[in-house]
Amino acid sequence: MHSNLYSEKMRLAITLGLFVLMFLSATLSYAKQDPQNTCSIHLTNAGMKEVIDVLEKQTDYRFLYMPNNRTKQVKISIKQDNKPLRDILQQIEKQTNLKFEIADKTIYVKERPSQAQQHIRRGVVVDEISNQGLSAASVHVRGKSAQAFTNGEGYFEIAAEPNDILTFSYIGYQPASLSINSLTDTIRLTPTLSQMDEVVVVGYGTQSRRLISTSVTTVKQENFNRGGFSNPLQLLQGKVAGLNVTRSGDPNETPSVSLRGPSTLRTGAAQEPFYVIDGIPGADPKLVAPDDIEDISVLKDASASAIYGTRAANGVIMITTKSGRAEGTSVSYSGYVGNEKSSKTIEMMDAAQRKAYLETMGRSAKPMDEQGADTDWQKEISRIGSIQNHNLSLSGGLKNASYNASLNYFDNNGILRNSGLERLTGRLNLSQRLLDDQLTIGINLNNASSNSQLIPNQDLVLYNALRFMPTVPVFQPDGTYTEDLPRVQYYNPVALQNQATERLRNNTTLLNVNASLRLPFNLLYNISATTQKDLYNRGIYYESGYSLKQGFNGEAYRSSYENTRKMLESFLKFENRWSQHHLEVLGGYSWQEDLNGDGFQANNRNFPSDDLGFSNIGLGSPQGNFRTDWGTNQYAKLRLISFYGRLNYNLKERYLLQVSLRRDASSAFGENNRWGTFPAGSIAWRISEEPFMNGQRIFDDLKIRAGYGITGNSLGFNPLISKVRYGNAGTFFYDGNFTTAIFATQNANPDLRWEKTAMANVAVDASLLNNRLHVTAEYYDKKTSDLIWDYNVSTTQYFVDRYTANVGDIRNKGFEITLDIVPIQNKTFRWVSGLNVAHNSNTLVSLSNDLFASDSIPQGYPGGQGQSGVAVQILKAGYPIGQFFTFQYMGKNEAGVSQFLDKAGNITTQPIDFQDYRYAGSAQPKLLFGWNNSLFYKNIDLNVFFRGSLGGKVFNATYADLNRPYEVESYNLPVFAMNESPEDGNANRYSDRYIENASYVRLDNATLGYTFTNIPKVSKLRIYLTGNNLALISKYRGLDPEINLGGLTPGIDNKNYYPRTRSFLFGLNVNF
């Protein structure tokens, strides 16, 4: 796969290079703040005038100074070749009592105060335990205005007098004050768990955590999950209470994310949170490499997320990437390489076990299956996967400008042969301050180019790897694949893998230009313009021998689609402080236009050779009644406009208030309900700031808060959902000619409106034990109304028999507890532990209204052979989404045949589908938890992370569909079926026999690292070993109990599940 991205790599590298050159050129006028001109100078005992003459001839700077007796007496000896002017000036300062100040193209030469009056103090600020330098730590001279900040490695320089006291502070650390006389070269700060001083990202701005009255959880880079992740959302798995992230081992699969339970009957993006990257709403998370992320904030309740209106019903996830600082240039590399394998396989009968079973049951194998082989088909389609990630970043800046550029390469060859993902991601962030810092202009450029290797009909490959006969080889002696096509759904899985090819290439580019201007009267104006473009190119080729395309002599598909998004965001903010009051008011406007599905699809058959694959589908020459498959994609436009506002007020930083309002209009919804209004409000009381709390020693901070708001859901909806849609009705012979006809495929609904979610949230935040323990406890009640669903209607009143309408309600209630604690902390050892626990209760309240009614809707069709129309779940008022509804298994009768309980309470071997079903538990877990532990001893760090789920159920459809003892002559059986009777034609029938406990505890990640210090020219070097998915405690018999909890059919483990992997990685982080 590596060669396929060569052109993309070159294009992205050239683009990034051009942008860097443009930026450096644009900021040349500000290079005076940090002169980089290269000079050579060789002088001995020279005067200042002679030195200036040499330097002025080699640079475009001019020196200005007032000669006096002291400056005339200065003698300078210096020998430097091709050194930056800045370094030369620093060498001269060390030899003399002179200092240089730069303005425009002039360098002013001044005398420094004598040593008796002032000293330049230098040092490095580090973490007390790890000895890591702390970037951007504040160094302040007590009682004076002098202040400095540490650079990327923790070094600082500040002017101070002998009797001064320096104060050192850094977020997350206890401040320290040292007198000049006691100052050492290394200042060690002690970490603390105080979270109240954090600045967290919220909608259209930031807030101090101590002043937040809404539910916002922030995960910083150092607390992210470790491992080989292709998507940034995996960094949060198990880290945020109430946020559930699930994913199989497929490198091309996007994780399923749900927050505080399902709140819609729609699937896909409609159930996902809304994503905001660096303030850009709706940006795609795949545009950001995990190494480039600074922190991720999750806006949980409606009072926090309602500022995003119709896109915030499932919460908002805000990703903040790393940015440059005005501290010189910093270069960093991070990378890892490793292997992965399937963490578990299904135990199928091998040749010996199958022979013993047949003999015991008095059956015999088909002669064609007795070929003397003992093939492990799961092994044949699998391999040891490889994974690697490399991230190179360059950041820095000048006094008025900063930049951050990064390039990331990710490659994952999946554990199934012929599957994998290769991706190149580039990012460039530029910021320029103008007009005495009153105007800030920024540019963000992101690009992600990926090449996915997919397996056509992957579900059949996985299914047949389980039930294909172990007694036959992969190949026959003549080199052809072993096949027996007359058997139903029986195909050589290796042949399916190797005789079909599918490639998907995706290129996503986002460009954002933004500006903020400080105006009189404490006003700040911000404007942001964004364009994002997605290009998809897919190619599929089935070779002439492919089992599912017999007689086609090769078939090829090609498709190419483009999606474009344009956005404009603009807001004005007023902020004022007076006495003990703080007021902030924000008002803005948003416009967005999406153009989706601009492209085509085509196919062809009957190719002269399989060698060219899908590269030239014009070579095909189809025969007979062949019609090109143009696909079902539709070109559609969606527009969204919004007005929004928010007010934040606090009194004495003790009483907090926030209210917000957003009005959205979308072209997707009915013409009678284009607009939606989404208000929200929250209050908080910091009890610890009350006078009556003075003197108590229990709480360092104590706050209670409550919020309520209404949000909407417009994600994942087709732009034409409320319109009449038409399709091709075929070709008819009319009036002597063949005529193509069209007919309506969807009814219009001019009254279709937003789904609305109302949420109430109450919480307590507390810090104790000198900020070594932080506790948050929350309770929420979330109800979604006006659910959108398709209902059966009469064609006497409507074009078609399905009508999309607003009907029904869903409720989610639950609690969340988060604890962060430092159990042990001393000069050499620190243990930081974090635990989060979440419970959610989901109920489908109603499926009916005055016009449309539905008692129940069958859901969850595993699609097993002979049971393709059989559901195992149900949507019904009073029950949760994911409610199992199936037969009740009652063991076997004397003949060994499975029997069930019918509706009347009688035991029968011939139950009736749906009529005899019973409720059999829910896939929704009772409790989700994550437990993280980080230990630091000198330069050694160890992180161990557990997570788990308790109380849910999972339907093992894989075992049900494999358990076919009555067809033992045709298909292989799992080991657990050794005692099954071949006379049992009901053995595989879906029932609660296959519903199992989905509870588990997983050792999800363990990382051991070592940091090297005091390496010349290297500010940080860390190596580490990481293991993912190391251990699992579960009673579940299938591959893995952690099945997707998103969608309408959670908890069904089907036979097409890509196995979850166990990986081991070696990584390196180095900063220069």
UniProtKB/TrEMBL annotation:
PROSITE patterns per the UniProt record, alphabetical: TONB_DEPENDENT_REC_3
UniProt domain Protein FecR C-terminal: residue ranges: 42-109
TonB-dependent receptor plug domain boundaries: 212-316
GO terms under cellular component: cell outer membrane
InterPro entries attached to this UniProt entry: Beta-barrel_TonB, Beta-barrel_TonB_sf, CarboxyPept-like_regulatory, FecR_C, Plug_dom, Plug_dom_sf, TonB-dep_OMP_SusC/RagA, TonB-dep_OMP_SusC/RagA_CS
Topology relative to the membrane: Multi-pass membrane protein
UniProt entry tagged with the keyword Membrane: yes
Residue ranges of domain TonB-dependent receptor-like beta-barrel in the record: 460-1030
UniProt KW keywords: Cell outer membrane, Membrane, Receptor, TonB box, Transmembrane, Transmembrane beta strand, Transport
Keyword Transport applies: yes
Subcellular location: Cell outer membrane
Family: Belongs to the TonB-dependent receptor family.
Name listed for the protein in its UniProt record: Iron complex outermembrane receptor protein
Organism name: Sphingobacterium allocomposti
Lineage of the species this protein comes from: Bacteria, Pseudomonadati, Bacteroidota, Sphingobacteriia, Sphingobacteriales
